[in-house]
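Let us work through a complete example step by step.
Step 1: write down the sequence.
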Amino acid sequence: QVQLVESGGGSVQAGGSLRLSCAASGYTSSSNCMAWFRQAPGKLRVGVAVIRPDGTTTYADSVKGRFTISQDKLEITLYLQMDSLKPEDTAMYYCAADRNWWGLRPMYTYWGQGTQVTVSS
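Step 2: predict the structure and record it as tokens.
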């Protein structure tokens, strides 16, 4: 059974940085698309960044140039480096994985429990 565990969230002032991690276990192979989503209170869950097994990436317009998704396949760990954080980035951040390509749509099969990111002005 695939399990995803996020870490690295916290509180930071606007302009600061955080690095989120997602530790994956239970994979039978590394051929999975992995993604970061976020959900603010009262809002829908939206895609932030996605990485394919070949390393190609896709970002939401709202985070382009500020966030970087990467993956350490040896440890099957997913990362999200978040720079120049803004108050509107405040949300619960979720890691997701699937063998299929869903892009930024929240159609992934496997989800973590989330890690909270709070950005103050």
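Step 3: interpret the result. The two ends are 40 Å apart (CA to CA).
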